[in-house]
């Protein structure tokens, strides 16, 4: 496997940065319309510079008083650069109409060819096709446009792209917990234009008003796609994963018994796991622990139900802690149902006009879920779960402060170790409906800024609490959110047994981009459980403790390798006639694991897996978790000839650990 020439990549990064953030030449990689004309940077006064690992450049238009300033970072340990633009009206009157604001508008040229290879993945669509790889060859005149559905940033699309040409390329990532877009256009031969930003921007700024653009990251890469993705994975863990007092959060297990639980059910399950030796790190209480008349979907009253938790939820946390478990507690603080306590604050709520379509789960949940992805469409575009649901307006400073205090009280009083926040509402139409004429995009911009401030303030108060981002599964996993929270549920596509192959596909696709995701499985069946295996692994309520002990032991023996490098060993497929396999490799210890799946209609009983990134002359010991024998190969043998995995039955799976021989 060709390793990237890092010196060359840093040089390419620095050359691009110096050319595009140039105060003397009056150049910035931003574009937008100001009135009827493109905003002219050449007429602005500039100050600031690029240096010391920072970007701090300011451009002010003397005619309109519009200040455009950029804050960013140039990494010293990875060939990556990131930035955010801010636009502020420093005049005494409103600005001209600002439209089509691009957080990046830049060109790249290919030396030896006129084509570019664009790779990305589908977002979460709550089917087996979530995170499906997308590959586009872009030639002269080709364009590709990407945007999420409904305002949640990873619903239907991911804001992560790997573009290669000749023997180089870039990886682009975005941080925007809202409605972003990215467009790639191959204009004249050998040239690619890259644009991205908040998708809807058409607004005037009032005196003193300020908005921001999405965070944009460029990582410069070499010619090998897999190695560039592993460089991205390492950067993600180092710089984009929530830390607890500066330390990386280790993989952990959890158990969840379902929805609308009681104090008795929770404490009995904790006792059951402890008594039977199933070592679980977190006890997870999901939706429905609060007062509601219509089930878990009715949210907005954030204290435990006195009937089901007579001693408050604190009793569950205390009981878990006595049994060496921590607690996960589900909340959905931004959606507000009619009749809830938060619904009394009408001036802090964003609502929809009566003619806007409302999707409701209710009794249709399972029917939609099982009908060819129709459930995914409902999940992507629905505006609310029950009639009258509103969006709590985090763009209002007073509302945000009130909610921060309210959620802080829940975390503190109930002794919560992991704050799990869901977002079962598509916010885009709420934002648009709240915008006035010539102010389109303003509600979203304020909301996103408030949302990030909300989480930052909570984490400042609770530095030892793990934060989880959930949004009908995995629909809010942009960079800015991931820097604040772990995605403990990468998708709601979890119904057994139909979800096995789909979850194999989820691991295959998402692992290229997010190395610290999680999911859950309600069955201790070996094939099903291994199909869901993740760094943050949840199990459901099942009385077969022997199966659960085996499942957790399997996970615990390999979980540390999920933070290593990732190599697909087969092509991506959801076909029941195909094998699928991948490798997680920890280069520091020259150890790792292979996951192999033989699906139900596979005819072949064996397949060869050729490993990556090994030392050719070294010897490696391989151990199949389902077999007693330990086999020895050289690195050269494993990379060239491979190791044959034999699985006579179908469906079947194998986990194979390997390590360099001492």
Topology:
Layout: H1 6-20, E1 31-34, E2 37-38, E3 45-51, E4 54-60, E5 66-74, E6 80-89, E7 98-102, E8 104-109, E9 116-121, E10 133-138, E11 143-146, E12 160-165, E13 168-175, E14 180-186, E15 191-198, E16 202-203, E17 210-212, E18 215-221, H2 225-239, E19 243-244, E20 247-248, E21 252-256, H3 263-275, E22 282-285, H4 314-322, E23 326-331, E24 335-336, E25 349-350, H5 365-369, H6 374-381, E26 390-392, H7 397-414, E27 418-421, H8 428-434, E28 439-440, H9 442-461, E29 466-469, H10 479-482, H11 500-510, E30 518-521, H12 526-531, E31 536-539, H13 545-558, E32 565-568, E33 579-586, E34 591-598, E35 606-609, E36 619-624, E37 630-634, H14 635-640, E38 643-646, E39 652-660
Parallel strand pairs: 21-22, 21-31, 22-23, 23-27, 27-29, 30-31
Antiparallel strand pairs: 1-2, 1-7, 3-4, 4-5, 5-6, 6-17, 6-18, 7-16, 8-15, 9-10, 9-12, 11-14, 12-13, 13-18, 14-15, 16-28, 19-20, 24-26, 25-26, 32-33, 33-34, 34-39, 35-38, 36-37, 36-39
Features:
seven-stranded parallel beta sheet; alpha+beta; 3 domains; TIM Barrel; Beta-galactosidase, Chain A, domain 5
Structure commentary:
Helix content is 23%, strand content 30%. The protein has 662 residues and is of the alpha+beta class. A hairpin with a 2-residue loop joins strand 12 and strand 13. The strands form 8 sheets. Strands 3, 4, 5, 6, 9, 10, 12, 13, 17 and 18 form a 10-stranded antiparallel β-sheet that branches. It has a 7-stranded parallel β-sheet with strand order 29-27-23-22-21-31-30. The two termini are 24 Å apart. The chain is built from 14 helices and 39 strands.
């Amino acid at each position: 496997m060709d390793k990237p020439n890092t010196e060359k990549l840093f040089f390419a990064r620095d050359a691009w940065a110096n050319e595009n953030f140039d105060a003397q030449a009056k150049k910035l990689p931003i574009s937008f319309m100001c009135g009827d004309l493109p905003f002219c940077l050449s007429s602005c006064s500039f100050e600031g510079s690029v240096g010391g690992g920072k970007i701090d450049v300011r451009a002010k238009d003397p005619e309109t008083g519009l200040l455009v300033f950029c804050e960013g970072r140039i990494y010293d340990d990875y060939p990556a650069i990131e930035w955010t633009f801010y636009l502020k009206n420093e005049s005494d009157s409103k600005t001209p109409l600002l439209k089509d604001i691009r957080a990046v508008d830049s060109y790249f040229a290919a030396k030896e060819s006129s084509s570019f290879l664009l790779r990305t993945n589908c977002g979460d669509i709550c089917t087996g096709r979530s995170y499906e790889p997308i590959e586009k060859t872009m030639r002269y005149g080709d364009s590709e446009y990407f945007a999420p559905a409904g305002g949640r940033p990873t619903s239907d699309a991911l804001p992560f792209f790997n573009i290669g040409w000749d023997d180089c390329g870039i990886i682009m990532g975005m941080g925007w917990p809202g409605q972003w877009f990215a467009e790639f256009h191959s204009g004249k031969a050998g040239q690619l234009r890259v644009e991205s930003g908040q998708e809807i921007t058409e607004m005037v700024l009032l005196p003193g008003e300020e908005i921001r653009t999405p965070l944009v990251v460029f990582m410069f890469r070499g010619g090998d796609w897999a190695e560039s993705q592993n460089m991205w994975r390492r950067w993600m863990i180092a710089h984009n994963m929530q830390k607890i007092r500066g330390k990386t959060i280790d993989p952990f297990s959890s158990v969840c018994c379902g929805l609308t639980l009681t104090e008795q059910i929770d404490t009995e399950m904790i006792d059951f796991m402890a008594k039977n030796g199933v070592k679980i790190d977190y006890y997870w209480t999901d939706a429905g622990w609060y007062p509601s008349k219509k089930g878990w979907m009715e949210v907005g009253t954030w204290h435990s139900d006195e009937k089901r938790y007579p001693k408050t939820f604190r009793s569950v946390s205390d009981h878990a802690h006595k049994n060496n478990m921590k607690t996960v507690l589900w909340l959905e603080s931004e959606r507000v149902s009619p009749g809830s306590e938060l619904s009394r604050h009408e001036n802090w709520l964003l609502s929809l006009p009566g003619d806007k379509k409302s999707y409701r789960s209710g009794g249709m949940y399972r029917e939609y879920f099982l009908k060819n992805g129709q459930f995914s469409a409902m999940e992507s575009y629905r505006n609310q779960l029950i009639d009258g649901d509103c969006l709590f307006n985090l763009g209002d400073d007073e509302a945000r402060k009130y909610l921060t205090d309210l959620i802080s009280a829940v975390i503190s009083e109930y002794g919560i170790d992991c704050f799990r926040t869901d977002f079962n509402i598509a916010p885009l139409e709420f934002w648009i409906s709240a915008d006035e004429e010539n102010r389109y995009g303003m509600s979203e911009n304020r909301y996103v800024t408030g949302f990030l401030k909300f989480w930052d303030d909570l984490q400042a108060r609770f530095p030892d609490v793990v934060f989880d981002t959930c949004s009908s599964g995995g629909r809010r996993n942009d960079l800015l959110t991931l820097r604040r929270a772990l995605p403990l549920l990468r998708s709601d596509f979890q119904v057994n047994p139909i979800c096995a192959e789909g979850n194999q596909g989820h691991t295959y696709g998402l692992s290229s981009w997010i190395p610290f995701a999680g999911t859950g499985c309600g069955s201790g069946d070996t094939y099903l459980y291994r199909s869901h295996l993740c760094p943050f692994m949840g199990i459901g309520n099942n009385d077969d403790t022997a199966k659960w002990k085996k499942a957790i032991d399997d996970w615990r023996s390999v979980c540390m390798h999920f933070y290593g490098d990732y190599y697909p060993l087969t092509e991506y497929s959801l076909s029941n006639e195909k094998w699928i396999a991948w490798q997680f490799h920890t280069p520091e210890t020259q150890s790792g694991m292979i996951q192999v799946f033989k699906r139900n209609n596979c005819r072949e009983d064996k397949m060869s897996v050729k490993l990556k990134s090994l030392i050719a002359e070294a010897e490696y010991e391989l151990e199949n978790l389902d077999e007693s024998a330990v086999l020895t190969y050289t690195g050269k043998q494993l990379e060239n000839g491979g190791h044959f995995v034999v699985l006579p039955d179908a469906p079947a799976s194998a986990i194979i650990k390997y390590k360099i021989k001492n």
